[in-house]
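Problem 12. The chain below contains 277 residues. Write out its predicted structure in token notation.
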Amino acid sequence: MSFRVNTNVSAMRSLSQLNKTSDEMSMRQMRLSTGSRINRAEDDSAGYSIARKLESKTRGQAQALSNIGDAKSLLTVAEGSLGSVQDILMSMKEKAVQAANDTLGATERTAIANELTAMVSEINDITGNTEFNGHNLLDATGGDGAGAFSFQVGAGSADTFAVDLSGVLTDDASLGIDALDVSDAANAGTSIDSIDAAIETVSGYLSSIGDSQKRLSFKADNLETSKTNYESARSRIEDADFAQEQMNIVKLQILQQTGTASFAQANSAPQAVLSLF
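Solution.
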């Protein structure tokens, strides 16, 4: 047995192990306080990189979900205006059918013609003022921004969905109701045909918009599922397991206590050299 007092190797080793235990306990406590297993790149460089990529993906998908909501809102605005146009057209048909009856006189026909003119003007007002964020959606003249729309519906640059409203021209001329004549029963019959054709055209527009809205709903559902799966994958890599971390802290607390005792004993061991004197 040898006694050296200038260098206490046992104490140095005990101190080194005690420091390691304390550092690991500090790391475990940080995980519990933040809820994250990886708080810095040095904790797990590969896991950190993968988790950041997954987070970027999910944040992009979250914004894409918001974009889909905005796109559906735009189409809903267009749908609402077209629905109003269709209601007006149906009222116009009632008047045209009334005018096709030979029981009416000139005064009555003039009144009906004035009503039809007012309804046509209202259709033009609706289509000219249907806007969403500066985009005129139903203006037959093209308007400010009317035409094809490209919606970003995913986190990738290629994840887009196009909706073309440039063909939805719903003023009186495009609908063929700009020259309605109810001056007699025969002309009123022709006006009925023109209004029927306009109703069919608007119904086709509404059907097309409905199809686009349905597709956007499917995309939103799929995106929500994908976002949840990516978030789950990121969580498994980055988030802390509280039960496991607490179990490790209990173990480290015991090691810290035994390490402290070992360090104290190693410090006192050189005093045994006094027994030699």
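Discussion. The two ends are 16 Å apart (CA to CA). Students who got a different answer should revisit the alignment rule from Section 12.3.
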